[in-house]
């Protein structure tokens, strides 16, 4: 595969319009200016922020502290409908729920909410589709529709936090973890993703108050953007989707590798770890007879030991095959041997708990089925 042909997609989404401005797109100054334009006093901006970020309300009809005669105008100006659920699909004894959303322009979007014994995690999307063209990924096979707005990212979190609070996945609880591992390459929508992270993690009424240390931003390896993220002053976890330690295979599995090699990606990851003091998660989808050879496990462990050392953690992901795909998960004994060899190099290595295989939880599968 010639990865160079898709490189412009790393930074540029197709020219499709973003949704109308939403309350979640605005900072404090923007919120104050917006309510002033509606003829409302300054304190209404803080009041609306408490409703949206604190009470998880995105519907003005529920905002009973807002004058009734102003609600329609506020709703039209600041709370346009961003996402409409097409369907929810649940599994794992109702502890995993995948939602397919339709956006204002008909674009499809997915998010997955997962309840564990000690946490509730939301996997969110940062783009509709993806331009990275990784051949084993359902989203990559579908291509990139467009970047999401800040509010389209943030509202996925509000909806999930409300569902968790209201007990939609069992006992009422609190949304605690966010992973940018849904549709899209987060660092290809850099400014909006960083803005969304700040709103997700700021205390109410500026945001949802989720700990930065409980937010993970994943990337296929946009090295300059990794370094830029390191300088943002955030303490989120960086997850690098490496998938193989050698450039020859990675050029095929992750075509952007033709732009930034394994060595450049790991160097940027080391810079991130040094700047933030945070361990980097190395994501590795284990694919039968493709990247699961013992010598690749040895190479992976050795390269990580030399570049990141104790600041690396390998997260092995049993591949969730997509319909009609030539790719399949590695057998259990191969997986176990891979883990053993990586650990022999002194690198922490675990296998991700897979969720939702029976509901097409691999990113992009529901959207592909709906098209």
Written account of the structure:
- The chain has helices at residues 28-37, 43-54, 71-78, 138-142, 150-165, 190-201, 223-230, 247-253, 262-276, 294-307, 332-344, 365-370; strands at 83-91, 96-103, 108-115, 120-123, 127-129, 144-147, 177-180, 215-219, 237-241, 280-286, 312-318, 348-351.
- The protein is α/β, with parallel strands linked by helices and 371 residues long.
- The chain folds into 2 domains: 23-78, Orthogonal Bundle (DNA polymerase, domain 1); 81-370, Alpha-Beta Barrel (TIM Barrel).
- A 10-stranded mixed β-sheet has the order 1-2-3-4-7-8-9-10-11-12.
- Helix 1 packs across helix 2, helix 5 (150-165) packs parallel to helix 6 and helix 10 (294-307) packs parallel to helix 11.
- The longest helix has 16 residues, at 150-165.
- The protein starts with 27 loop residues before the first helix and ends with a helix.
- 49% of the residues are buried.
- The model is unreliable at 1-15 (pLDDT under 50).
């Amino acid at each position: 595969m010639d990865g160079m042909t898709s490189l412009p997609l790393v930074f540029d989404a197709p020219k499709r319009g973003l949704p109308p401005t939403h309350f979640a797109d605005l900072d404090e100054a923007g919120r104050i200016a917006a309510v002033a334009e509606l003829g409302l006093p300054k304190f209404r901006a803080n009041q609306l922020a408490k409703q949206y970020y604190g009470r998880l309300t995105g519907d003005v009809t529920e905002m009973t502290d807002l004058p009734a005669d102003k609600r329609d105008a506020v709703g039209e100006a600041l709370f346009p409908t961003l996402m409409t659920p097409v369907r929810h699909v649940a599994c794992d004894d109702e502890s995993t729920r995948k939602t397919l959303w339709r956006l204002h322009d008909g674009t499809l979007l997915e998010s997955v909410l997962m309840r564990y014994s000690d946490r509730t995690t939301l996997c969110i999307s940062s783009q509709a589709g993806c331009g990275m063209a990784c051949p084993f990924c359902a989203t990559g096979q579908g291509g990139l529709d467009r970047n999401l707005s800040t509010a389209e990212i943030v509202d996925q979190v509000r909806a999930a936090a409300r569902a968790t609070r209201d007990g939609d996945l069992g006992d009422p609880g609190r949304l605690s973890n966010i992973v940018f591992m849904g549709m899209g390459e987060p660092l290809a929508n850099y400014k909006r993703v960083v803005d969304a992270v700040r709103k997700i993690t700021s205390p109410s009424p500026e945001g949802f108050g989720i700990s930065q240390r409980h937010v993970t931003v994943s990337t296929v390896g946009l090295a300059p953007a990794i370094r830029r993220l390191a300088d943002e002053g955030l303490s989120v976890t960086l997850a690098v989707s490496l998938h193989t330690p050698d450039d020859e295979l990675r050029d095929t599995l992750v075509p952007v590798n033709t732009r930034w090699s394994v060595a450049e990606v790991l160097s940027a990851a080391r810079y991130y770890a040094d700047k933030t003091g945070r361990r980097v998660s190395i994501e590795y989808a284990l694919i039968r007879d493709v990247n699961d050879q013992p010598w690749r496990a040895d190479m992976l462990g050795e390269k990580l030991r030399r570049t990141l050392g104790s600041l690396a953690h390998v997260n092995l992901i049993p591949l969730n095959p997509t319909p009609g795909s030539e790719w399949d998960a590695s057998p259990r004994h191969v997986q176990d041997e891979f883990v053993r060899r990586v650990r022999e190099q002194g690198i922490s290595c675990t296998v991700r708990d897979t969720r939702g295989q029976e509901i097409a939880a691999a990113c992009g599968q529901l959207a592909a089925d709906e098209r």
